[in-house]
Amino acid sequence: DGGITQSPKYLFRKEGQNVTLSCEQNLNHDAMYWYRQDPGQGLRLIYYSQIVNDFQKGDIAEGYSVSREKKESFPLTVTSAQKNPTAFYLCASSKQRHQPQHFGDGTRLSIL
Amino acid sequence: GQQVMQIPQYQHVQEGEDFTTYCNSSTTLSNIQWYKQRPGGHPVFLIQLVKSGEVKKQKRLTFQFGEAKKNSSLHITATQTTDVGTYFCAATSGTYKYIFGTGTRLKVLA
After folding, report:
1. How is residue B79 annotated by DSSP?
2. Nearest-CA distance from A34 to chain B in Å?
3. For A7-56, how does the pLDDT look when each residue is reduced to its tens digit (9 = 90+)?
4. CB pairs A-B closer than 8 Å
5. Contact indicator for A92, A101 with CB cutoff of 8 Å
6. 3-state class of A70 per DSSP?
7. I need a labelling partner for A12 at 20 to 30 A (CA). Which of A58, A81, B20, B28 fits?
8. Does B1 score more than 70 pLDDT?
9. DSSP category for residue B81
10. Of A68, A86, A65, nearest to A76 (Cα)?
11. Is B69 helix (H, G, I), strand (E, B) or coil?
12. What confidence tens digit (pLDDT) does each residue in B14-63 have?
């Protein structure tokens, strides 16, 4: 079955550490997205990519970085510059602009 | 930047009662999508509205897109406990970016 796989499901970050969240899709979708969701809140866009080797900042990109070297993969790195990283991170993809988004199961990141 | 306001933030209903959530934008939208997120889960796409004044139904769910394409609503008739979750609208205005509403958390009391 096609879908989006996020790993790990839970992640703990130490002070000053960079961590990378994985997102892989086999839906053959062009666009991929990273969102952050805080408890009881909506989804805020971190980064998005319309095509391989291209990506744009979303509304809360500071302290995060991404790469899009392959169509299937869009990893998110939470850097030490992100002072409040505890949240639920969701990766999504869509075939084209304005098409429905498919979400992964998410990664819950906490600070040790 | 563009914002999408969603009301109410929370809604508790007795099982069998109706429920409505509203999504409003200050700018004209290209389309609007609705998602449902169960507690502890991820958002799942429900429907997309594109045309002005469009109305779509999915069993007990009715979705509307306003004539000016600036607002939308989701109405659930005779709620069931399986309807529990947070309902989000998401709008686009010509780019690849989706702007999500703040969501309406629905609790259904049996």
Report:
1. -
2. 11
3. 999 999 888 899 999 999 999 999 999 999 998 888 999 999 999 999 99
4. 53
5. yes
6. strand
7. A58
8. no
9. G
10. A65
11. coil
12. 999 999 999 999 889 889 999 999 999 999 999 999 999 999 999 999 99
